[in-house]
């Protein structure tokens, strides 16, 4: 096709090759046919270099980037494209934030010369950038081969390092055996769901229906991320727009595979992936965390494997990431690489030296497990101290950092709560609502410092033990998370405490903010006593002493201290004492 007049920052001519840098996406869009031709000619084409994928990223997530893409031409024919954007003073791949693999697009036999002239052209205007970050480059890709074969003068400005591992399942002549073996590992999860209700798996191929399912897919992913202490990308409107644009540009009936698993008509798991050039790509899964114990995510994977048995697919790629479940099914692991190209000048030399020292230190730590454990413990201690500072100020941080490891004293009280209100002092309005694991995940986004990954993991364990989660609202704001159950034995700090009869047991009271007062806890206990009394039960609770007012005030308000456990820690040794209140 005819070569348009480029808006360029630089141009270079060498050995009948001409290189220009595109800075306007409309000009790149005009070359989409050449892009597609080079994408196919690369030999290892991925969905991430599909031009529709790139265009969707640019429209949704490229707002803070400037196009800076070298295009190489030989005698009027485009023979190479290095898709880059400028973010701040760093050049990165076009679509870098959503791509597991990145490639240099070039015709066969042109890669080495084309890459070299691209780098020469970019160096002509090095005042615009400090470094080129080429990340997620497959080890067997054209770009990796070309970088290794660059002249020595170029090699001196490039630092290479290992990137993420990429487990995959290769399906060759023994495709059916490989898939059957993997499905056998997941059959139990499928059977559990089938016993619960009718289970249906399908690919959503109607764009209108896909648009209806997207919000639920986003919510499931957001909640699952909150359980792991991560922030889901779907909390960002631009990231959501990228998925919508992708479905509009490619469509769910083509290379995009948007799958849903329904239990009794309820969507319990989704998978947003792709089927491109004979490869099924595992990209973005989600599942309903309220059904966590039924393992709907595993059931979704089982149905995808079942689909592959009849599909024209030679590989199931799990993508970037070293998660253990991927290695459970993969039979091959690829390695991505990261290459950093530094701009000429002394500042880049300093930056390159600093990065080399940092990477060397990381390798040294990884080679010494004891040192790695010590540093991880120190990092955890520092994070805990910062958390204490945010919640309780410098005094709490000092206690966490120095006093607690050497000396600590904690006291818990076991209290019984009267159902009758004595002299009206316990009538502060408290609203109590039962909450699911999904609701807790939503709440974790509002209170990330309180509902941490460890707390959410503990919540799953409590739910397995048939405990009930409640959110208490005081003065119109969510204040406290409470865990309860019904029984005749109350788990105490040392063993269990036998009660006169069945009672509502308050196992844990966790304030969500530091704004609460000790009277808040009294109001919470009184509210649960009312709920228990309606069921003919008494109420017993284990409460940290620091949350409670004086015993005399508690008794005046119908909260009766019965026992107290005191834990003393001196130089790492812990001692417990149990005392009964008179």
Tell me what you see in this structure.
This protein has 582 residues and is an alpha+beta fold. It folds into 3 domains: 11-165, 3-Layer(aba) Sandwich (Aminopeptidase); 172-313, Aminopeptidase, CATH 3.40.630.30; 407-580, 3-Layer(aba) Sandwich (Aminopeptidase), CATH 3.40.630. Helix content is 39%, strand content 31%. The protein contains 18 helices and 24 strands. Strands 3-6-7-9-16-10-15-14-13-12-11 form an 11-stranded mixed sheet. It has an 8-stranded mixed sheet with strand order 18-19-20-21-22-17-23-24. The protein is elongated and about 95 Å long. Residues 1-10 have low confidence and may be disordered.
- Helix segment tally: 18
Unreliable residue stretches: 1-10
Strands across the major sheet, in which order?
Answer: 3-6-7-9-16-10-15-14-13-12-11
What is the total tally of β strands? 24
Let me know the largest β-sheet. 11 strands, mixed
CATH topology of the largest domain: Aminopeptidase
Query: What is the share of helical residues?
Result: 25-40%
Number of domains: 3
Looking at the structure, what is the overall shape? elongated
The pLDDT mean sits at: 87
Name the CATH architecture of the largest domain: 3-Layer(aba) Sandwich
What is the CA-based Rg, rounded? 30 Å
Name of the CATH first level of the largest domain: Alpha Beta
Structural class: alpha+beta
Distance between the termini: 94 Å
List keywords for this structure.
alpha+beta, Aminopeptidase, 11-stranded mixed beta sheet, 18 helices, 24 strands, 39% helix, 31% strand, elongated
């Amino acid at each position: 096709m005819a070569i348009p007049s480029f808006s360029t920052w630089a141009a270079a001519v060498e050995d009948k090759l001409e290189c220009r840098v595109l800075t306007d996406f409309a000009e790149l869009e005009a070359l989409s046919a050449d892009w597609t031709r080079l994408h196919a000619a690369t030999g290892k084409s991925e969905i991430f270099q599909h031009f529709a994928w790139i265009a969707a990223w640019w429209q949704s997530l490229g707002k803070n980037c400037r196009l800076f893409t070298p295009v190489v031409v030989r005698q009027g024919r485009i023979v190479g494209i290095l898709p880059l954007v400028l973010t701040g003073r760093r050049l990165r791949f076009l679509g870098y934030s959503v791509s597991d693999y990145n490639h240099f697009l070039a015709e066969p036999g042109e890669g080495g010369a084309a890459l070299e002239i691209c780098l020469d052209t970019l160096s002509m205007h090095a005042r615009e950038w400090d470094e080129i970050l080429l990340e997620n480059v497959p080890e067997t890709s054209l770009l990796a081969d070309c970088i290794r074969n660059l002249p020595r003068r170029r090699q001196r400005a490039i630092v290479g390092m290992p990137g993420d591992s990429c487990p995959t399942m290769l399906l060759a002549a023994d495709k059916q055996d490989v898939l059957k073996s993997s499905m056998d590992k997941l059959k139990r999860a499928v059977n559990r769901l089938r016993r619960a209700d009718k289970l249906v798996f399908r690919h959503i191929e109607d764009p209108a229906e896909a648009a209806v399912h997207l919000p639920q897919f986003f919510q499931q992913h957001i909640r699952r991320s909150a359980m792991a202490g991560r922030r889901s990308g779907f909390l960002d409107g631009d990231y959501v727009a990228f998925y919508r644009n992708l479905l509009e540009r490619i469509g769910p009936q083509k290379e995009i595979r948007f799958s849903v698993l329904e239990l009794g008509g309820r969507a319990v798991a989704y998978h947003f992936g792709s089927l491109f050039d004979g490869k099924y790509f595992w990209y973005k899964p989600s599942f309903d965390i309220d059904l966590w114990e039924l393992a709907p995510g595993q059931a979704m994977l089982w149905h995808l494997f079942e689909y592959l048995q009849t599909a024209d697919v030679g590989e199931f790629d799990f993508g970037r990431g070293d998660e253990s479940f991927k290695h459970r099914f993969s039979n091959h692991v690829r390695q991505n690489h990261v290459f950093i190209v530094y701009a000429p000048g002394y500042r880049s030399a300093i930056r390159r030296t600093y990065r080399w020292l940092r990477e060397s230190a990381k390798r040294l730590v990884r080679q010494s497990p004891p040192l790695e454990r010590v540093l991880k413990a120190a990092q955890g201690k520092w994070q805990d101290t910062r958390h204490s500072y945010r919640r309780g100020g410098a005094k709490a941080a000092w206690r966490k950092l120095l006093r607690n490891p050497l000396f600590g004293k904690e006291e818990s009280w076991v209290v019984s709560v009267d159902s009758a209100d004595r002299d009206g002092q316990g009538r502060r309005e408290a609203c109590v609502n039962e909450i699911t694991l999904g609701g807790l995940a939503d709440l974790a986004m509002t209170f990330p410092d309180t509902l941490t990954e460890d707390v959410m993991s503990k919540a799953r364990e409590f739910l397995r033990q048939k405990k009930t989660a409640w959110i208490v609202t005081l003065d119109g704001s969510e204040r406290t998370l409470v865990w309860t159950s019904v029984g005749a034995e109350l788990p105490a700090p040392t063993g269990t405490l036998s009660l006169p009869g069945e009672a509502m047991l308050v196992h844990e009271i966790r304030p969500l903010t530091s704004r609460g007062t000790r009277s808040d806890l009294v109001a919470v206990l009184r509210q649960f006593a009312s709920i228990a009394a309606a069921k003919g039960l008494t109420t017993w609770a284990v409460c940290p002493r620091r949350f409670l007012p004086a015993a005399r005030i508690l008794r005046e308000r119908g909260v009766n201290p019965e026992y107290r456990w005191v834990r003393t820690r001196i130089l790492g040794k812990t001692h417990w004492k149990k005392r009964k209140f008179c």
